[in-house]
Design brief:
The complex is a heterodimer.
Chain A: H1 7-21, H2 28-42, H3 47-50
Chain B: H1 2-32, H2 38-41, E1 55-59, E2 66-71, E3 77-82, E4 86-91, E5 96-102, E6 110-113, E7 119-123, E8 128-133, E9 147-151, E10 166-169, E11 172-177, E12 182-187, E13 194-199, E14 205-210, E15 215-219, E16 224-229, E17 238-243, E18 249-254, E19 259-263, E20 269-273, E21 280-285, E22 292-296, E23 301-304
Antiparallel strand pairs in B: 1-23, 2-3, 3-4, 4-5, 6-7, 7-8, 8-9, 10-11, 11-12, 13-14, 14-15, 15-16, 17-18, 18-19, 19-20, 21-22, 22-23
Classes of the chains: A mainly alpha, B mainly beta.
Chain lengths: ~60, ~300
């Protein structure tokens, strides 16, 4: 994977990986719950989801 | 000289092993927080009913493959670009063409509508991004007012008036901090090129569509892939994806001419839409979420609702 990579390119890769490793993460269960909550909150405004009655639809 | 080379090799070797161990650590950290699957969390959510979505308008006029389209903020105008070298602005209610610009090249791969509604940007094989102010004055030549805003060393594949801070390159999706110019997160779980990425409406996640025939959802705060949208029967690449207003639905256009509609939370397909007669190349939900538009290699655009 690193075949032919120069020392400076590898150095940059190491720095990049350190940056990515340092990201603060939350549990999937919490992230998933929040995604779900957003969907539920906005559901009634989502015309494609609830299906607008054709009489007042734009198209 | 020999000792210099030896030193360089040692440095390379130690950098490589550091990179490997950092990658391993990244996977470990991500795995620690992988306590549940999104669809498990969504088990108690009511399943979606049957969807009746149909083509409500067909926009005909391009002489070749439609490559890109964008909605105007007024939720009715659409700009599209094509391999025929033309960029057309449509009134999607009436299907009338309001403006047409002939580009100096074919394969206009990217186009975008300005938030003000007063201009469009486009580009392709001419290697630049040009902005055209839109005018209704019949005496004005739109092409004469064009401004080049960016010169690239190769073809323009995407342009946007907003800070589009995501990029799918090869199998990797990268999230960039526009202020520092740094890549802050990277995700590499697709098995083939990513063709399209789009933010979830809350901004906390994004979806991707790939040549590996899957679409995937990545949560930015959990820093990992949280869902895969796929079926054994779907074997052609997904070219473009977009979310419905609430983020519950993911619309994806495929190279097998279909559009699949996915339940983002449960991971299941809720509908398959037929109509296009060639690959779907571009897809965007309208600004108010009441419809979505797809563009295809069959030279047409379709508005669905």
């Amino acid at each position: 994977m690193y075949f032919g990579a120069s020392a400076s390119a590898l150095q940059r890769l190491v720095e990049q990986l350190k940056l990515e490793a340092a990201v603060e993460r939350i549990k999937v269960s919490q992230a998933a719950a929040e995604l779900q909550q957003y969907c539920m909150q906005k559901a009634c405004k989502d015309a494609l989801l609830v299906g607008e009655p054709r009489s007042c639809a734009l198209f | 000289m020999a000792t210099e080379a030896l030193h360089e090799n040692e440095t390379l070797a130690s950098l490589k092993s550091e990179a490997e161990s950092l990658k391993g650590k990244l996977e470990e950290e991500r795995a620690k927080l992988h306590d549940v699957e999104l669809h498990q969390v969504a088990e108690r959510v009511e399943a979606l009913g049957q969807f009746v979505m149909k083509t409500r308008r067909t926009l005909k006029g391009h002489g070749n493959k439609v490559l890109c389209m964008d909605w105007c903020k007024d939720k009715r105008r659409i700009v599209s670009s094509s391999q025929d070298g033309k960029v057309i602005v449509w009134d999607s209610f009436t299907t009338n063409k309001e403006h047409a610009v002939t580009m100096p090249c074919t394969w206009v791969m990217a186009c975008a509508y300005a938030p003000s509604g007063c201009a469009i940007a486009c580009g392709g094989l001419d290697n630049k991004c040009s902005v055209y102010p839109l005018t209704f004055d019949k005496n004005e030549n739109m092409a004469a007012k064009k401004k080049s805003v960016a010169m690239h060393t190769n073809y323009l594949s995407a342009c946007s008036f907003t800070n589009s801070d995501m990029q799918g390159c090869d199998k990797k999706a990268m999230v960039w901090d526009m202020r520092s110019g740094q890549c802050v997160q990277a995700f590499e779980t697709h098995e083939s090129d990513i063709n399209s990425v789009r933010y979830y409406p809350s901004g906390d996640a994004f979806a991707s569509g790939s040549d590996d025939a899957t679409c995937r959802l990545y949560d930015l705060r959990a820093d990992r892939e949280v869902a895969i949208y796929s079926k054994e029967s779907i074997i052609f690449g997904a070219s473009s994806v977009d979310f419905s207003l609430s983020g519950r639905l993911l619309f994806a256009g495929y190279n097998d001419y279909t559009i699949n509609v996915w339940d983002v939370l449960k991971g299941s397909r809720v509908s398959i839409l037929f109509g296009h007669e060639n690959r779907v190349s571009t897809l965007r939900v309208s600004p108010d979420g009441t419809a979505f538009c797809s563009g295809s290699w069959d030279h047409t655009l379709r508005v669905w609702a």
